[in-house]
Amino acid sequence: MSGRFGGFTCVASRVVGSYTDGLLVIRFDPSTPDPVMSAFSALVLPGPRAAPPPVVEAWSAWEPDWRARGYAEGKGDPFESEPWRHDWASQVDGVLRWAGGHWELLCRFLWKTYPQVVSESLAWLAPFVASQSMPRRQFVGYAHHEYDPAPHLFWVENGQWQREDMNPEGYFAP
After folding, report:
1. Rg (CA), the chain
2. Alpha-carbon distance 117 to 123, whole Å?
3. Can you give the pLDDT at residue 61?
4. Does 72 fall in a domain?
5. Rounded mean pLDDT of 86-99?
6. Which end of the chain has fewer CB atoms at under 10 Å, N or C?
């Protein structure tokens, strides 16, 4: 059993447990290679520039948080060093649009995992964020676990992904 709920796809086999919802607002650097943009190109809005062809997922067991699934060393993601070879568009609900010389990704997601794992899963995007012209770190999104009082913020600074936990020091959800 599956269906759409609030913009998210819910699959009955994954309904039990706790979730993290999140938002990404990423302005890609104009030099971002087409294979990277292909990971999200299934979300493209019609516009002045055609997107590269979307990725066709080659690993049926892939999920963004595959590392947390307990795969033995060397038995996990065959594209670990090339995460853009996955169909990231199937894991989020949003749009990819061409906006005055660069691509922008605006999306929400609901994953059955923790904000720390979400951050680790998305960190590969940092070198492709258009942040070189920014004098300080750039906000690119957040993840909020359903039991936490506050979200974890995601930033990119100097091509590095950063996670900032806004929860009180020592707070741990039951």
Report:
1. 16
2. 10
3. 87
4. no
5. 96
6. C
Look at residue 66 and tell me if it is in a domain. no
CA 87/CA 96 separation, integer angstroms: 14
pLDDT grade for 88, boundaries at 50, 70 and 90: very high
Q: Which of 4-13, 33-42, 93-102, 149-158 has the lowest average pLDDT? A: 4-13
pLDDT of residue 172: 67
Q: 96, 44 in Cβ contact below 8 A?
A: yes
Q: Is residue 35 part of a domain?
A: yes
- Residues 44 and 63: their CA atoms lie apart, in Å, by 21
Q: Is residue 44 part of a domain?
A: yes
Please tell me the total count of domains within the chain.
Answer: 1
Contact 122, 24 (CB under 8 A): yes
Question: Which of 130, 134, 152 lies closest to 143, judged by CA?
Answer: 152
Model confidence, pTM: 0.85
